[in-house]
Amino acid sequence: MKECNEGYLFALFNSTSHVLAAEKILKNRGIPYKLIPVPRTLSSDCGICIRFCREDRQTVESLLSERIEDFRIDTG
Amino acid sequence: MAFIVNAKGLSCPEPLILAKKALDEHEEVEIHVDNVVAFENIKRLAADKGYTFEGIEEDGVYRILLKREEKLLRDNKVETIPKGKTVIVISSDTMGRGDVELGRLLLRIFIHTLTELEKKPDTIIMYNTGVLLAKKDSECLTDLKMLENIGVRILLCGTCVTHLGIKDEISVGEISNMYVIAQILTLAERLIYP
Q1: Which of A43, A55, B7, B87 has the fewest CB atoms within 10 Å, i.e. is most exposed?
Q2: Which residue of B has its CA nearest to A19?
Q3: In this predicted structure, what is the pLDDT of residue A19?
Q4: Are B48 and B31 members of one domain?
């Protein structure tokens, strides 16, 4: 994963299948990301989240919104 | 019985080439040379490859006995294999059985989480479809490389890599064999099967 100059953000989902769907979207668009366990400081129904670069926030948010109903982005 | 190679009268690199070739085919090789350069070169080869080296000189002829690691292991001289304190065994490309997609995801997250643990495992052994994690297109590659860089030994079952036809795609870890794997498993203090 490339270095994120501005740090990371976390996309949290309600189910593992949403995580996988979101991953597919980001992968197809070549956006750097990483699946990680949800940081303990955050809470979620699902234990796995997607970490991405803060500078990609807008792209990630709009891409995910097209396909996934329920997710949130957290600053961790 | 050691396989005997007569390299007397030959100068480098010939004795070295003959020694390497013999060791590819035999576990125990005795090589005879008559010059000190060849003697020293074979000594270095032994150190590089992890063979045991015993050499004696008699009337200008050096007799060198080399033993390969597998032979050593069978002779129960196991002290040459580092004792792995914590060994993680990746025996398939999923974590747990049942839902395959979920299992693959869990394993990825597990490997990632290892990079964040304070106490890292000493060794990770991968066999069966577990070796798929070491492929160049593996989602775990970055994390595995990171672990390897900080000293975690990653061993891949060579038979498995060959069976799955992914030898050219392996991008992390060392391809190993059952002697080494069995030895590390039996010596481990903690064996973890995620």
Answers
A1: A43
A2: B105
A3: 92
A4: yes
Mean pLDDT value across residues A14-21: 90
Over residues B8-37, the mean pLDDT reads 87
End-to-end distance of chain A based on CA atoms, in angstroms? 18
In Å, how far is B115's CA from the nearest CA of chain A?
A: 11
| Segment B64-108, tens digit of pLDDT | 998 876 665 555 554 444 545 899 999 999 999 999 999 999 999
The amino acid present at A51, given as its one-letter code, is R
SS3 letters for chain B?
A: CCEEEECCCCCCCHHHHHHHHHHHHCCEEEEEECCHHHHHHHHHHHHHHCCEEEEEEECCEEEEEEECHHHHHHCCCHHHCCCCCEEEEECCCCCCCCCHHHHHHHHHHHHHHHHHCCCCCCEEEECHHHHHHHECCCCCHHHHHHHHHCCCEEEEEHHHHHHCCCHHHECCCEEECHHHHHHHHHHCCEEECC
Instruction: Please give the backbone phi and psi of residue B45, each rounded to the nearest 5 degrees, phi first.
Output: -55, -45
Domain closes at, from B33, B48, B74:
B74
Structure tokens of A64? 């995910």
* Residue-range definition of the domain harbouring residue B67: 3-74
Judged by a CB distance cut-off of 8 A, whether residue B113 touches chain A is yes
Partner-chain residue, chosen from B101, B105, B139, that has the shortest CB–CB distance to A48: B105
Counted domains in chain B:
2
